Amino acid sequence: MAVQTLTINGQLVSAVEGETILQAARSAGIHIPTLCYVEGLSAHGGCRMCLVQIEGHHRLQPSCTMQATEGMVVHTDTEQLREYRRLIVELLFAEGNHVCSVCVANNHCELQDAAVEVGMDHVRLEYQFPQREVDTSHERFGIDHNRCILCTRCVRACDELEGAHTWDVSGRGAHTKVITDMNQPWGEAVTCTSCGKCVMACPTGAIFHKGATVAELDHGRGKLDFLINAREKKQWNV
Amino acid sequence: MPKRIVIDPVTRIEGHAKITIHLDDAGEVQQAQFHVTEFRGFERMFVGRPMWEMPGITARVCGICPVSHLLASSKAGDQLLSVEPPPAAKKLRRLMNLAQIIQSHALSFFHLSSPDLLLGMDSDPARRNIFGLMVDHPELARGGIRLRQFGQQIIAMLGGQKIHPSWAVPGGVRSPLTAADREQIRERLPESRDTVLHALDTFKQIVTRFPDEVESFGNFPSLFLGQVGPDGTWEHCDGMLRIVDSNRKIVADHLDPARFQDYLGEATESWSYLKSPYYLPLGYPDGIYRVGPLARLNVCERMGTPLADRELAAFRLLNQGAVTSSFHYHLARLIEILASVESIEAMLDDPDLLSTNLRAKAGVNRREGVGCSEAPRGTLFHHYQVDQNGAIQKVNLLIATGQNNLAMNQTVTQIAKRFIKGPTIPEGVLNRVEAGIRAFDPCLSCSTHAIGQMPLLVQMFAADGSLLAEVRR
User: Which residues are B276's β-sheet partners?
Assistant: First the structure.
């Protein structure tokens, strides 16, 4: 495979053909914030946290879907990108009902981590306070749509890793939500194998172990990485 | 011409309230009312939440007594799961509640009320606060602050944080005490005991300066409600309820807290957001009862620890039958701190405190559960109804301060009648009206409390609503 050489933040970086800018950056130890991306699952490009500036491109591009090409000059940490990333996180907080202090995922939440990373000391937008439901009909797990950021990590983990495709997305715009089977209570979703990969994949407290109390949720994210590694590379590293 | 006097806000209490005093044509006090002016709507906010989150969420009701809500909520959760928490979990919950009683009572006595008691009801309002106390009585102020810190430290050791821990959960608790933390608690016990004994001595000396206040600060017959142990010993967490009258005659005993709706009713008044619970068999408002330190000491037969029992014996001599003056809430509070310090000492070597078998797990096995604990301010009930998946459908919180609502209204009326004479009202008199409320240590479901001086506005209105006079301090 041909090796591509590109420049990220002034640093020469090499990428295998077909690799994305995000993968090339991570291999070189350059950090780009992400929310919907999980290494080993297909890229969704939905959260826009990983936007980068590419010289010669008029628009910012999501680095999780943009392939690295020879001679590309990429900037990942400009003033504009920092402002956009903060705004993205503010939008996520304003459109859902995210109350960290009483959330099962407090201190174990990638949205919370992102807010800290982008320096979100307050939200400049009007909170929407949507009315959303909590489904605890499953014997072992629950979903709180108030905390869902529609990253679709659960959908992809369920489809691509477990192969069950219990999760999917329904609705449009502000009415979009993740659903189980034919938009029925999770406890009645016959395709669900109760494997728990969606809990591992969820970046927030939206999908949780039933019985988890405030700040207690352990996603077990490492287990998901282990499974992906085992599947993709046939390496069973523990 | 009838007049109305308004004290708004009431200072040095937890939360926001105001007092109105209604005068008749002759300028005599007719009635006074204690209004809670904030509305928070927590009971509605809980609907739809998974029941496992309730201890952590309800703890957020208050920054002063989060532990009380945490415990009542987790106990309601035990009922919903139909489980008995492991013995170690029950003991650790008790330890945290004792720490909570210490820290909250210390705040009430030393930070909020002792400026009135030690500097004087009529002293300069600008200095009548914890900072003025530090200047005139540095040892007492320092001791009080450290005593509160001791209680908070134990809460943090168990729950990971001083305020709003989410440590108690349906079925038990999340983590044990460590051996190192246990030794730290042991080291602080002698100092804490000395501080409260010193405060008790000081209080007994100064109480003689307040004969009028003792006589008029909510001194009336009423029922008293609180938990007691199986043999009538003072209890703060796992007891049954007892109600006594002002002769200390037992009106009802061995009441199951889970069935509180069978014997307690809740009335509402249009002028306050605070509900007015009453003892159902006597009706409203005759079923007036008091909860909290004064009530707990009136209902129990012994404190169960040596020094506190000695103090209880002296407390009993204050009155024949029950101690009915709400001024003595202060004394009862100090005796409870002493009992808590002694109780912690007595339980500290129990190996169960270090056990890691702390949590009984189960699914939702009941659709309705009631949790009850003795909050520093009195008996607290959490009543939940859930669906088959554990989602909250209905919540009723019966808060200690609410149960004292009728008594607090009677108290402000009594004080106003005793001290307001003629058309001019000195600031010290208004402070007495507030101090009568402070004796109850009301917690108006709020984490804010005023240090020092908040603006106090008193307005006198004619019957037609026109402003006759205004006093601002």
Answer: B267
Amino acid identity of B409? N
- Which residues of chain B, if any, have pLDDT below 70? 1, 11-16, 37-39, 422-423, 444-473
- Could you tell me which CATH number the domain at A3-77 has? 3.10.20.740
Q: How confident is the model at residue A237 (pLDDT cuts 50, 70, 90)?
A: confident
Q: A213, B164: Cβ pair inside 8 Å?
A: no
3-state secondary structure of B204: helix
pLDDT of residue B268: 81
**What's the rounded Cα separation, in Å, for the pair B302 and B313?**
9
Instruction: Give B463 to chain A, closest Cα distance, Å.
Output: 44
- Residue B429: what residue type? V
Residue A14 has pLDDT above 50, yes or no: yes
**Rounded to two decimals, what is the model's pTM?**
0.91
How far away is chain A from the Cα of B343, in angstroms, using its nearest Cα? 29
Among A99, A100, A102, A132, the residue to mutate for chain B (most B Cβ within 10 A): A102
Query: In terms of domains, do B229 and B113 share one?
Result: yes
Residues in chain A with CB shorter than 8 Å from the CB of B50 are 134, 136, 142, 144, 210
Chain A residue closest in CA terms to B81: A211
- Coil, strand or helix at B423: coil
Element (H, E) at B348: none
Are both B248 and B337 inside the same structural domain?
Answer: yes
Residues A237 and A226: beta-carbon distance below 8 Å: yes
Q: Does domain A83-233 have CATH number 3.30.70.20?
A: yes
B 172-201 near A (Cβ less than 8 A): 174
